[in-house]
Write a structure and sequence with these properties.
The chain is of the alpha/beta class. It has one domain: Hypothetical Protein Ychn, Chain: A (3-Layer(aba) Sandwich). It contains 5 helices and 5 strands. Strands 4-3-2-1-5 form a 5-stranded parallel sheet, sandwiched between helices. Strand 3, helix 4 and strand 4 form a beta-alpha-beta unit. It is globular. The N and C termini lie far apart (66 Å). The mean pLDDT is 89.
């Protein structure tokens, strides 16, 4: 019995510390947002939603906005009215990803995009991959 007591005590302490560590470690939230509309009100609403998420989980959220179809103008430097917001959010870690398939369809080159934008081969495939990796999905709409 005396030999088992140290093992039992160690087990109790290990469970206590493991529980305490998990209780203190906040969950990292990961959100992927699909934006494929030319509706500028939807663009503004998406920017607002991102800022609201950042307020709820400051420094504890990863956000990627996958832009494809007619939504690409959000990231085209000469067509967007939200360049300052996109640039500022990118500095805070938000990723804006333009779909290369849509870029080809709409004759948009990488040089036409805001410098902070990245590109992905397929916007819809990027959405699927993120969801398979456990990211939460939001569809951009007007609030």
């Amino acid at each position: 019995m005396k030999k088992l007591f140290p093992i039992f005590l160690f087990s109790v302490i290990a469970v206590f510390f493991t529980t305490a560590i998990h209780a203190q470690a906040p969950k990292e939230h990961k959100v992927v947002i699909q934006l494929n509309t030319a509706d500028t009100a939807s663009w503004s609403s998406t920017i607002g939603n991102i800022k609201n998420l950042q307020k709820v989980w400051p420094n504890n959220i990863s956000i990627e906005v996958v832009v494809h179809g007619k939504g690409l103008d959000l990231l085209v430097a000469t067509k967007t009215h939200l360049a300052n917001d996109v640039n500022a959010l990118t500095k805070e870690g938000v990723v804006f990803a333009a779909c290369e398939n849509s870029m080809r369809k709409h004759n948009i080159n990488k040089a036409d995009l805001l410098p902070v934008a990245i590109t992905v081969p397929s916007g819809v495939a990027e959405l699927v991959l993120k969801q398979e990796q456990g990211w939460s999905y939001l569809k951009a709409t007007v609030n």
